[in-house]
Amino acid sequence: MYRSFLLFILTFTCLIPAKAQDMADKANHFIRLLSKAQQAQTLFPFDTGERYHFAYVPRDDRKGISVNELNPAQRQALMALLGTALSEGAVKKVNDIMQLDLVLKELEHRPENDHYRDPGKYFLTIFGVPAANTIWGWRFEGHHVAFNFSADKKELVAGTPAFLGANPAIVLEGPQKDKEVMKEETKLAFDLLHALSPGELQKTVVTTKAPAEIITGDRRNALIEHPEGIRYPELSAAHQQMLLGLISVYVHRFTKLFADKMLKDIQQDGLDNLWFTWAGSTEHELGKPCYYRIQGPGIIIEYDNTQNNANHIHTVVRDLKNDFGGDMLLEHYRAAHTK
Fold first, then answer.
1. HSE (CB half, 13 Å, CA atoms) of 253?
2. Residue 16 and residue 166: Cα distance in Å, rounded?
3. Which of 103, 119, 222, 304 could form a disulfide with 98 if both were Cys (CB 3.0 to 4.6 A apart)?
4. In a domain, 12, yes or no
5. Which domain holds residue 236?
6. What is the pTM of this model?
7. Beta bridge partners of 141
8. Strand pairing partners for 151?
9. Does residue 91 belong to any structural domain of this protein?
10. How confident is the model over 293-322, as pLDDT tens digits?
């Protein structure tokens, strides 16, 4: 059954146009395919506190409906919805990350009936009523995958917090040996780091010890008060382009509409206000912990590879103005529902 779900992922993301108005249509198609009991499990008000829950570790108490509980047609509809928000490459990464749960299950010698590691334990939750004239949102979340989307009528407001992780970062044995799901996020960062001049490198590396986890964690409000590292204007023109290329990897996890909005916001906030920060080892080798961050007035991107002998990656994108749709969107929703 799960193999069929993977085929849906690879097939249908190639067919889905990245249009904002598609999102509500695809969400409603998914809802119509659910039974009444499944709808009750999946649908929540937009102003519920549940919408702000954000977790990227294995959990048994997630709200919503899991992939395991869906039939093939429902799974197809779920992936069609996901394809309205994420790029084809990002959906493939989600698929690959889900499959890594099978690798972990084998590595941890878990019995067949143990579902702590389970590629079907990923949940969809819908908040509000999807339509072209409503405020609503949805979340797709499980181990090492967490995306939160918000829409205000026909406008896509936010797709964050957005988390992707990989454990193992590099599969060392078994049928998936050498698979490296987050290879691009790792390689481009090290390419930039190793290209820096001695003066640039001295500013960029703030400590030789990497933090044990992404600093923003799973908090509702992402905040790192004091930026560190090297500022965009302090980089050479070539290294500025490399930094922008690294940002693009994260931004283009989303479909073009989302990505264009995020890039416009970054530019409006001023490229000169971007910081690039490195902590931990500067050697690109297994077993050497490292961390980097890109921070601006409206965005924080984090990458951490420290756990499991530095073979376990966490990455996150936080929109400091619009995470979970932003407070302003919630105010608009409440105002519309008190008239």
1. 26
2. 26
3. 119
4. yes
5. 183-321
6. 0.92
7. 123, 146
8. 136, 156
9. yes
10. 999 999 999 999 999 999 999 999 999 999
